[in-house]
Amino acid sequence: QECSKKQKNDDTQSTSVDALSSNDGSEEKNEFDTLANAKILLSDCLACDSCMTLEEGARVFQQNQKEFFRILNLNKKCDTSKHKVLAVSLCPQSLPYFAAKFNLSVNEAAKRLCGFLKSLGVHYVFDTTIAADFSILESQREFVQRYQRRNQEEHALPMFASACPGWIRYAERVLTNLVTSHICTAKSPQQIMGSLVKGYFARQQNLSPDKIFHVVVAPCYDKKLEALREDFYTALYNSPEVDCVLTSGEIVQIMEQKNVSMKDVTEVAVDSLFDDVKEGDVVRHDGKRSDGYLEHIFKHAAKELFGMDVKEITYKALKNKDFQEVTLEKDGETVLRFAAAYGFRNIQNMVLKLKKGKFLYHFVEVLACPGGCLNGKGQAQTEDGKPDRALLAQMEEVYTAIPVRLPEANLQVQRMYQDWLEGMDSRKVQDTLHTTYSAVSQSTSSLDIKW
C-alpha cells in the first residue's frame, strides 16, 4: 500500500490533532484515560491521511471511548441542565463479532451487550436493522426509477450502492462527478438511524435533538468519518445525527478496562423506538456479510420491471470471490446484470471499465472491505492488525444463521412512512432518508494508490 502524502503528513497531523484535542488539563481524569485515542490509518480503511483534512482528523480523534465516558461522567454530576440522554445503536454486523468472540448466540450477545452498556449509564440501546429497512426500500425504489429513465438520463445507470462510507469517500475525493452521479441517494443505515433517533424518537420523548447523545457501534472505522458529514447535521439544534461512533473492538476495550466478561453480564432486552412495541429476536437482511442491497434490489427489480418472482439468487464468481455477478434472463435475453465488488482492487477495476465505456452492470453493491462488512477493520483483527480468519469464519456462521426478514414485512416501517414521513412520495422522505454525493476537489490525485 502506497500513499504519496502519507509520510509527510504523519507528523503534521499528529501534532495538529494533539493540539486541537488538548483540554489544557482542565478535564478531570478518570479510569479510562489509558484508552487509545481514535486514529484512522491507511491499513484500517480508505480514509488515510491523504484524503482527511486536519479538522476531520481532529474530530475523528475525539470520537473515542473518552468522549463516551465524558458524557457518562457529566450525567453523574448534579447540574441536570447539562445531562444528556445516552442512546446507543448497534449495527447487525457487529453482533456476530460479540457472539463469536464470547461463544454466545446472537440474541444472547445483543442482550448482554445491552446489559453491559446500561450498567455504564446508557439509557437506550437500539438495533439499527429498522434503519437498514428504510435504506433498502428507498434504494429499491430509486433503482426502478433510474432503470425506467435510463434512455432519457445519461447517468441514470449504473447505480452504485451508497451504504459504505469508505467507498463514498473514495468516489467523492478521488473520482469525478461521472461516478458520483451514479451513486444511490439513499442514506446509509447509520445515518438513517441518526434521523430516527434525533428526529422520530426525540419527538416521541419530547426531547430536543441536542439533548440526546447518540452513539453507534459499528464494525468499521470509516463510520466515524461518515458521522462528520455536514449533510448529516441539524443546524437548528447544533446537533449531528450521530455524535460518536465506536467500533466493536473499542467496546471490547472498555470491557477489558473494566475487567468485565460478557458471560457475567445480566441480559437486558434491546429497546424499541416505539412505546407500544417490544423488540424481538435479532433479524437480518439477505446477504452473506452485509445488509444485502444487491439481493433485495435484484428481487424487487425483477418483480417490478419484469413480473418475475426470484426466490434464490445464484452468484457467479469472476476474477475473485470478492467480485461476483448475478443476472436475470427473460426470453433468452439478459435483462438485469448486477455485481458485488468488495475491496479496492475490485472497485478500481470496476471504475476503469466505467470510464472506458465497457460497463455491463445495472447495479453494483460496492463495499470497501474485502469480504464485506463483517470483515470491517474495527473487529475480528489480530493484535498485529491482520484479519482473525478463524474468528471471521465463526462470525459468518453466526450471521448466516440469523433469520432473514424482508424490509417490506416490517409493519413499523410502513406505519412510520405514513405517520412520520407523510407518505412514501413526500418531500419529507427525500429530506430525511436521502442525501447527495458530489466530487470534492483534491490537491493531488490518489489514483496512484496501489490497493
TrEMBL record:
The lineage of its organism: Eukaryota, Metazoa, Chordata, Craniata, Vertebrata. InterPro entries: Cytosolic_Fe-S_CAF, Fe_hydrogenase, Fe_hydrogenase_lsu_C, Fe_hydrogenase_ssu. It is found in: Nucleus. Keywords: Nucleus, Phosphoprotein. It comes from the Eukaryota. GO terms for cellular component: nucleus. Belongs to the NARF family. Residues 1-11 have a biased composition (Basic and acidic residues). Residues 385-441 form the Iron hydrogenase small subunit domain. PANTHER family: NITRATE, FORMATE, IRON DEHYDROGENASE. Residues 1-28 are annotated as: Disordered. Residues 12-24 have a biased composition (Polar residues). Interacts with LMNA and binds to the farnesylated C-terminal domain. It comes from Notiomystis cincta. This is Nuclear prelamin A recognition factor. SMART domains: Fe_hyd_SSU.
